[in-house]
Design goal:
The complex is a heterodimer of chains A (525) and B (188). Helix content of chain A is 66%, strand content 1%. With 525 residues, chain A is mainly α. Chain A has a single domain, classed as Cytochrome C Oxidase, Chain A (Up-down Bundle). A two-stranded antiparallel ribbon of chain A has the order 1-2. Chain A is globular, with a radius of gyration of 23 Å. With 188 residues, chain B is an alpha+beta fold. Chain B has 2 domains: 9-44; 68-186, Sandwich (Ctag/Cox11 (Pfam 04442)), CATH 2.60.370. Chain B is 24% helix and 36% strand. Chain B is built from 2 helices and 9 strands; from the N terminus they run H-E-E-E-E-E-E-E-E-E-H. Chain B has helices at residues 10-44, 178-187, and strands spanning 68-76, 83-86, 90-93, 98-107, 113-122, 130-135, 141-143, 147-157, 167-176. Classes of the chains: A mainly alpha (525), B alpha+beta (188). Chain A binds chain B through residues 100-101, 104, 164, 167-169, 171-173, 175-177, 202-207, 209-211, 214, 222, 224-225, 228-231, 233, 235-236, 239-240, 243, 300-303, 306, and chain B through 1, 10-12, 14-15, 18-19, 21-23, 25-26, 28-30, 33-34, 37-38, 41, 44, 46-49, 52, 77, 116, 118, 124-125, 173, 175-177, 180, 183-184. The complex binds protoporphyrin IX containing FE (HEM) and copper (II) ion.
Amino acid sequence: MADHHGPAQGISRWLFTTNHKDIGTMYLWFSFAMFLLGGFFAMVIRAELFQPGMQLVEPGFFNQMTTLHGLVMVFGAIMPSFVGLANWLIPMMIGAPDMALPRMNNWSFWILPPAFLMLASTLFMEGGAPAFGWTFYAPLSTTYAAPSVTFFIFAIHILGVSSIMGSINIIATVMNMRAPGMTYMKMPMFVWTWLITAFLLVAVMPVLAGAVTMMLMDIHFGTSFFSAAGGGDPVLFQHIFWFFGHPEVYIIILPAFGVVSQIIPAFSRKPLFGYASMVYATASIAFLSFIVWAHHMYTVGMPIAGELFFMYATMLIAVPTGVKVFNWISTMWRGALSFETPMLFCIGFLILFTLGGFTGLMLSIAPADFQYHDTYFVVAHFHYVMVAGAVFSMTAAVYYWLPKWCGRMYNEAMGKTHFWVSFIGFNITFFPQHFVGLAGMPRRIPDYALQFADFNMMSSIGAFIYGASQLLFLYNVVATIVAGKPVSEEKVWDGAEGLEWTVATPAPYHTFEEPPLVPKPAGTI
Amino acid sequence: MGSLRLSRVPAVDTALKLSAVAAAMFAFVFVVMVPLYNVLCDALGINGKTVNQAYTSVPALIDESREITVQFVAVNNDGMPWGFAPDTRVMRVHPGAANGVVFKALNPTDNSMVAQAIPSVSPSRAAAYFHKTECFCFEEQVLAGQSAADMPLQFIVDQDLPRDIHTITLSYTLFDVTDTATDRLASR
Ligand code: HEM
Ligand SMILES: [Cu+2]
């Protein structure tokens, strides 16, 4: 091979790179930027909701903020961050020199920033940004949408293409590039969860693209997919959206499961409990996620048989999810535990994600959901699973692998402070939302009844604390990269297992150009 | 993946096959999900959708033992300026018997307009048993400015209507489709 050179210099290194580590780094920084942008929108929302009455923004602008917050966080922050992690880690974990299709890899990243630039630019357009919620139900997003909706649709198309290319690359890598001896059932859990996630993405991102294409046709080409006047049906939109949307929430959480399954064993100094059952549980969750979508639509007027089917199918998901939770706890059981920052975030994940799973179970009860639907209870539920689930695990991943990536150790005291401030701030923000939701406060409103004032003020204070703690995180990461204490042992954490810990620290630009010897099954010490 | 090879490079082969899956899923939305949804809704009466075609009545006994209350609701979609109301709001009918009701429409504007009425039956389980032999909702309705019209509806409630249903509500929402109708004419 000719390319035994280091990275190119200057901006062209980043523009034209096909190196999985460079591309992973770009994904991670991009998603962090989106995390801050989406976080800024959230701060506007919480500032307005600090007190009842209208204080800071117009109701229309408030709706633009909730919409953009959701879209940017889901599609800009969480999803690309895990793709970045996959890029960095999957080749190193399976002993491959790079991703299978490096040039496509470059494209999947570089079409993302323009898509989000376009989405953000709608804020400055005539009629404002999209204001119909991240679920963009028709006819709000068709008949009643601002003209900027066309740019929104185009942005969704592009980021859909990016996700599909990214996942095709991941599947092609895992299926074709494993080092000799790295059988499927020896792969680290993170690789397994990403493989399954990538299949989910290939199956449902095109459905999302179909939904926005129909919107585009209804708006500009006179079709009536979602317009009752022309023989269509707005409820059809919800079916298509959630046929994408429910698998999407597992697309978000499965890689997080993978991360936690790597980190908990490392700081318990014990192999992952029930490796095979973890694989099967992940696969069953992925399968079930295709047959539960209408639990988001209990109140649209489904026949009783439909309500029952979707209710029982949804409850069934709690079984494989429970298997995972018990496996993580069993991994820690009688382990030689230590509580470095990555482990703290994983334990935080374990507790809070389980809480979010429980509220999910409450919501899955169709007759009860008639009360909970579209209240702050739902908001509390999905922030427990998405923030304390996906974002906490992503944070854990950054602390865990950062020393391997840059050869420097982060500041542990600052990391622990970050954890505790995040954990407390998060709970102050979202725990009270369960109560106001049960008491009837609707979601997506800029003003509320007086009896909700105290809990909302608490929520807002918590949100400012949680938001501020992310700046500490940013500072810690930058300070580490620039001037952290150098580390050079290959195995930065004594309990860490896996091929990525057998290469030099910091990880060289090219790794595993010769396939490594795969010693023992994943999970054994 | 199987024995079919799309490329000699294994990774490219996998990628091409997966691209085909993605393309198929995109097509799936249009050629499977949409038609399937419409077929299911029509067949099961989900969403209270009624069949959009005249029902050819079959000779059947009138079930004198049961009386069903049928209520009529007429609403305008937002911005629709027409007057729109049934001449009777409630009717008691026997399953199997033919019945009629007239909806009055008035276009108070100065321009000719086109309207489309969209029906919905509640409870939705009754939709499959509510047969329309004639309905103004089967077609778009054109009304010249400042004019009125009587729009008839003929229907039969099926003898097999589940026993526990005693009241059926038929609701029409009237949409202004003047723009799309003229667009369609213009493009012809
Ligand atoms: C045990 C597992 C879970 C169950 C039983 C469950 C159940 C539900 C139900 C029934 C709803 C609809 C509530 C309503 O709108 O009235 C809902 C909403 C939601 N769930 Fe879950 N859920 C689970 C896990 C998750 C996970 C892992 C995620 C994502 C990481 C997630 C993300 C969401 C989101 C984003 C919404 C709100 C969507 C919206 O309307 O904006 N859920 N969940
Ligand atoms: Cu769901």
